[in-house]
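Help needed: design a sequence for this.
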């Protein structure tokens, strides 16, 4: 039996099979739409799959190298399908496992665009969505076919009991899907925790440089081929250049996550001591909802968290920041600040008047000085 690789080794060596790179250190960028065959028999014999050149939609060595590397990061996974964005990965995975008449359970803290897809597109296709409190085990009915998890929550950082929900779902034959973008498989190996399908917006930490859009769905042997076939059936594919950028980003993801973690924790602890700040929603802090699950299940934390501004104008405070950019997304090298107002239907947000921060790779002391100046002016 091959000894399991440490994270640093897996990130450095993943997807670097000689089949993909030959004598090159890194797999090359192979751009292709049309693939030529030696004969009609040759064309008809081949079938789509990892390592089989057939058509650009099914990828080239550049894509296969990234898929292989991401699969290796999830012990127990059978394969990874690639998508042009994280949202495309989430929506396609849901479509692949749901049918008209099914019920999908979704945490009330879910990513806004995911929520909208469930209440519009899935509803149109005859799939009912029922939202549940992210800190509770969802109630299962005879129509429940899949449970979506997002841990921690997109804006309010509640950590779910993922292993507990996965165990309950498996006993009932219900598929579990997890948006694992915040933790990545480095800090939470989802398949090993019992999840059937794990999803990454690789736009974030895997890419890491705010210059690429890409999503990934990694699944067990019971679900991978169905998800991959469904993705190709919808024409979902990514460019070789984008796949290559994310492959390159993976090499340094472990180092970057360590820096994001240290900086965010330093800033979260500092914010916790400021008179202008109410609750700090960071999974590694004891006051964060679900912290006990983070402590039990996760091996680290990353750069995204939120805090409550007690008084003052949140927008004005954010506008005064010099080192924090104002923009969507996160997971890149740059720090960001965003005014957020969570929308809920079955549970109350753990705090109000929230500002979400992504702590990048800048010096944490400089970021604290920037926040201190903006908070002083908000008094």
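Sure. Designed sequence:
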């Amino acid at each position: 039996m091959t000894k399991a690789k440490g994270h640093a080794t897996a990130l450095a060596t993943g997807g670097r099979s000689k089949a993909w790179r030959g004598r090159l250190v890194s797999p090359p960028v192979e751009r292709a739409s049309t693939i030529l065959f030696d004969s009609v028999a040759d064309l008809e014999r081949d079938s789509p799959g990892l390592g089989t050149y057939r058509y650009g939609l099914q990828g080239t060595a550049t894509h296969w190298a990234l898929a292989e590397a991401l699969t290796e990061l999830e012990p127990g996974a059978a394969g990874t399908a690639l998508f042009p964005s994280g949202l495309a990965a989430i929506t396609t995975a849901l479509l692949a496992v749901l049918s008209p008449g099914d019920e999908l359970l979704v945490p009330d803290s879910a990513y806004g665009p995911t929520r909208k897809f469930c209440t519009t597109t899935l509803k149109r296709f005859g799939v009912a969505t029922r939202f549940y409190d992210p800190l509770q085990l969802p109630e299962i009915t005879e129509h429940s076919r899949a449970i979506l998890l997002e841990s921690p929550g997109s804006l309010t950082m509640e950590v779910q009991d993922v292993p507990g929900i996965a165990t309950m779902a498996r006993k009932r034959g219900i598929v579990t899907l997890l948006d694992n973008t915040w933790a990545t498989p480095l800090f939470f190996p989802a398949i090993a925790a019992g999840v059937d399908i794990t999803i990454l917006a690789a736009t974030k930490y895997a890419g890491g440089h705010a210059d690429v859009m890409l999503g990934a769905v990694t699944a067990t042997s019971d679900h991978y081929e169905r998800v991959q076939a469904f993705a190709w059936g919808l024409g979902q594919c990514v460019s070789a250049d984008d796949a290559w950028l994310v492959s390159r980003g993976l090499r340094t993801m472990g180092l970057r996550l360590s820096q994001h973690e240290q900086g965010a924790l330093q800033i979260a602890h500092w914010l916790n001591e400021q008179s202008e700040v109410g609750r700090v929603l960071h999974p590694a802090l004891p006051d964060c909802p679900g912290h006990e699950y983070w402590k039990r299940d996760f091996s680290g934390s990353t750069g995204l968290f939120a805090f409550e501004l007690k008084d003052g104008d949140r927008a004005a405070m954010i506008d005064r920041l010099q080192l924090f950019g104002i923009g969507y997304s996160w997971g890149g090298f740059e720090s960001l600040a965003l005014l957020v107002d969570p929308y809920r239907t079955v549970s109350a947000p753990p705090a109000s008047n929230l500002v979400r921060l992504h702590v990048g790779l800048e010096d944490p002391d400089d970021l604290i000085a920037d926040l201190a100046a903006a908070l002083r002016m908000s008094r």
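Residues 208 and 332 are 4 Å apart (CA to CA).
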